[in-house]
Amino acid sequence: MTNNIMTKSLLGLAMALGLFASCYDDKGNYDYISEDDAAGVVLGALEGTTVRANEVLNIVPQMKGGEGDGFSYLWYTLSSGTYNVRRDTLSQERELNVPVNLKAGKYTLYYQVTNRSNGVFRSVEAPLTVTATDITSGWYVMKEIEGGTDFDYYSLDGNKAVSSFMTTSLGMEPLKGSPVGMAFLDGSYNHEEEGADGKTTKETGLSAFHILTTHDFVTLNGSDFSLLKNLQQEFYEAPSSFNFSHMFIDSSLRAQGLNTDYCFLINNGKVHTMGSEIGKWGYQGAGDYELYPTLVLGFFSVFAYDMKNQMIVTCSTDGTVENANTLSGGAFTDFKDKDMKVSAVVPHTGGFSPEFYIVAKSGEDGKYYVADITTFPPYICEATYYEYASDSPLNQAKILASPQTASVIYFAIDNKLYMHKVTTGEDSVVKTFAQGENISFIQNITGTDKAGESFNDIVVITNTSAGYNVYQMPMVGSAGELQTDVAPAYQGEGKASYLMFRQE
Predict the structure, then answer these.
(1) Which of 35-49, 161-175, 224-238, 364-378 shows the lowest per-residue confidence on average (mean pLDDT)?
(2) 351-355 long-range contacts, Cβ below 8 Å, gap at least 24?
(3) Is the preceding peptide bond at 378 cis, omega within 30 degrees of 0?
(4) Residue 10 — very low, low, confident or very high, per pLDDT cuts 50/70/90?
(5) Collapsing DSSP states into helix, strand and coil, what is residue 107?
(6) Contact in structure between 219 and 229 (CB atoms under 8 Å)
(7) Most distant CA atoms of the chain, gap in Å
(8) Which of 19, 127, 273, 370 has its CA 20 to 30 A from that of 1?
(9) 3-class SS at 199?
């Protein structure tokens, strides 16, 4: 359909053709009618929505015109999977008010209004998520319980909380080992399964949860929490032993319109990779190396630190591990040359050119440094070394995090939360929790709260003999200061040490 519909005034056409054909002069007597005018309706935008399967979805469209018998209406969905896209009609009424009889998953909802007299239509669209559960946006807290690991759920709106979700709601056994990480893949995961008849079926465009402990791994369907894969099914060829230490999801391709996530996993110091459109982890990256259990997002690769060879390396999406190079093309050998004994790798800023900190002691001069690593992926731009005192409590820290908005490192020792200013080496106690309330997790998390307000918080988990506490401490100013006079946002039973925030 063109942007304008053209009509021509034909008054006296027969006379013109009969009497003046030889001298007819087209004066361009045209009337241009906009598409909206031709359709007789102007539609407002649809908002994306989430609904449980078989629940009634009611939408009153925002529109001008389009009323009466001269118009027809159509509500329909298209599935978002890569293959076998399916169209389902929901309603042919002006307003949508029907049970959503769709399988849990991601869809695009369309609303179309057609002018019966001329066939001109207007349409709008919006994302639609159909779930089999009301466990969606919110906070997921991984914790140790008797027998292994489970997680608690707290909804974003504050109306729902579920303790030990896998054991109490799904009837599963706790996962073996201690919490390592949890990740949500939003509509990008593909899953293949071989049936009893030997035929392989493929489900595309699924949402999925990866849940990882030191010695166990499962993937659950993100819509209904059905089991997609257990530990042995996760890999094309399972490793001979399991000692997981880190999981990392690269979703940068989504900004380019691609529905793909690249996933990285560290087991026994070796990296495994997976494209979400494949759904199985590949073989461990070849080579003689041992990765520190933290990865830093780069452009089409991630940075890591090889503890065995004292080198910053890049891990490609195909599992290749290589020494990181400088912009001039040679290997970046600073840490090997200085005989750096690394105690921590701390991601700082993301984006196209990420920046991260490495906390280390130099064997060359015996001094302690925070190295500020700037990059232009896959290259290292430079390392700036900031010396700090040998008796700094930073040397004892095992739990560290850095925000994107300040050149500081937060770290924990027992019940004290510290802040280390990178450029000056200054340490200060940010908050002292009650005796016996020890910190197990620190992370900078941003998002939108239940009131629709943006937040930028340092989230801290503490544990006591009675259970865990989750604190959300807003960042104030640009120097790393925190609002610390906050009560626990969430409390639960068990020993917690990881938290995932999910927002759709």
Answers:
(1) 35-49
(2) 352/299, 352/377, 353/299, 353/377, 353/381, 354/296, 354/297, 354/298, 354/303
(3) yes
(4) very low
(5) strand
(6) yes
(7) 106
(8) 127
(9) coil
Length of the chain: 504
The burial class, CB within 10 Å (0-12 / 13-18 / 19+), for 196 is exposed
- Domain ranges for the chain, please list them: 40-131
In this predicted structure, the answer to whether residue 167 has a pLDDT above a threshold of 90 is yes
pLDDT tens, position by position, 84-143: 567 899 999 999 999 988 877 788 999 999 999 999 999 999 999 887 777 889 999 999
**Contact predicate 372/357, CB 8 Å:** yes
pLDDT at 257: 72
State which fold the 40-131 domain adopts: Immunoglobulin-like (2.60.40)
Write down the pLDDT at residue 11. 33
What are the backbone angles phi and psi of residue 310, rounded to the nearest 5°? Answer: 55, 50
> Is the Cα torsion angle 298, 302, 307, 309 positive or negative in sign?
negative
Say how far apart CA 426 and CA 51 lie, in whole Å.
50
Mean local confidence (pLDDT), 11-40: 51
